[in-house]
Design a protein that fits this description.
The chain is of the alpha+beta class. It contains eight helices and five strands. The N and C termini lie far apart (65 Å).
């Protein structure tokens, strides 16, 4: 499948702005906001020095972005911004100051940011792993890619504790069953 077809279909189904970068230049952009290309050019360098793909770039002002590298063409596919909540006017002003957006189209920019879908971090990284699989046929574990060793150890310990708690849990008919056995 052509990368452009995939990105066009992804944008049409998820409404997450999608950008294809080729050698640090925007090759194609899928977005309803006409000036997004100009905005994105102001901060696209955040996505070009990443060591490990797929990756998440998180900014409290610019939103959450996902980056997947097409291993066949070395193009970067960038998804975002998405937010965990609908951006308010304060979020808009921070976005404008960080992205050097023109204040002339404030209402249009606000409508665009409000129309971007809301994803929490967990849902977003699951979506990125799916895109990684589609583009590169690379099945990855979320914990191996998106969490460092300290977080992985914490997750592992929580899983063990959860399994112990589940296995020792007394369900609603436990005492009745114990009486029948005794």
């Amino acid at each position: 499948m052509k990368l452009e077809t995939l990105c066009e279909g992804f944008y049409a189904s998820h409404f997450i702005p999608t950008i294809i970068l080729n050698n640090n230049e925007i090759e194609k952009i899928y977005c309803s906001y006409d000036y997004f290309k100009d905005l994105f050019n102001n901060y696209k360098n955040r996505f070009t020095n990443i060591k490990k793909y797929p990756a998440v770039v998180n900014s409290s002002t610019l939103g959450l972005y996902g980056v997947v590298k097409d291993h066949k063409t070395d193009k970067l596919i960038i998804f975002g911004p998405v937010y965990s909540k609908v951006p308010d006017n304060d979020d808009l002003l921070r976005f404008i100051s960080k992205s050097f957006a023109s204040i002339n189209d404030e209402e249009e920019l606000l409508n665009f940011l409000r129309s971007t879908p809301n994803y929490n971090y967990n849902h977003f990284i699951n979506l990125l792993t799916f895109v990684e699989y589609i583009i590169n046929n690379n099945q990855i574990q979320i914990t191996d890619v998106f969490f460092d060793e300290k977080v992985q150890d914490s997750i592992y310990l929580k899983q063990i504790k959860s399994e112990i708690d589940y296995n020792t849990q007394e369900h609603g008919t436990y005492y009745f069953e114990q009486e029948m056995v005794d």
